[in-house]
Amino acid sequence: MGGQEKIVVHEDSKGTYAFLNGAPIAAFIKLSWYQTPIFHYILPGFSLILFLSTIAWIVSALRNRKKGKKVEPHSRWARCVAGWMSILYLIFLICMLIILKNAYDVIYGIPPLLPFALVLPLIAIIPTIGSIYFTVLAWKNSYWSMLGRVHYTLVTLASLVFI
User: Fold this and answer.
1) Spatial CA neighbour of 44 closest among 147, 125, 158
2) The model's pTM
3) Among the residues of 101-145, which ranges form H helices?
4) pLDDT tens digit string along 101-125?
5) Can you list the alpha helix ranges (DSSP code H) found in the chain?
6) Rounded CA gap, 158 and 108, in Å?
7) Do 44 and 13 share a structural domain?
8) By residue range, what is the domain housing residue 137?
9) What is the number of structural domains in the chain?
10) Does the structure show a pLDDT above 90 at 81?
11) Residue 147, exposed/middle/buried by CB under 10 A (0-12, 13-18, 19+)?
C-alpha cells in the first residue's frame, strides 16, 4: 500500500495476466474455476468418500455369502470389481499422505514408498475398465435401486477422475 510498485494487467483471448514492474519476468495468471486449489481439494475429497463407501459393499457381500443369499452374479462381480478398484485408490492415497508427510524426502530424493504408490493407479486401470462395463450393465439390466446405480456410476466416475 502506498508503494511505488506498479501492476500491469493484460487481457487477451488466452486469458488475463498481471505483471509487477519489480518482477517483469513473472506473470500472474487468472485461473479457471477447475484450475483453482479449492476445486482440487473438493474433487479428491468427494472421490475419497465414494471409495470409502464401497467398503459397505464388501461387508454386505460377505454377509450375504455367509447367509447363503443368492445374488445375481453380474451384480456381485460389479461390486467386487469396484470394491477392489476403490481399495487400490485408498491404499494409494494413504501412501501419498505418508510420503508427503515430510516434504524434504521428496525434495532431496525419491522416497522408497513412492514407486510402489505410483504403480497403484496404473493397476487400478484394469478394474476401472471392468467398472465401466458393469456400469453399463447395471443401467441396462436395472441392478439395484436407482440410487444404487447412481452410486455405482459416481464411484466409476471418481475412478476415471483419479486416472
Assistant:
1) 158
2) 0.78
3) 103-107, 113-123, 125-141
4) 887 877 888 888 999 999 999 999 9
5) 37-67, 73-100, 103-107, 113-123, 125-141, 146-162
6) 32
7) no
8) 34-162
9) 2
10) yes
11) exposed
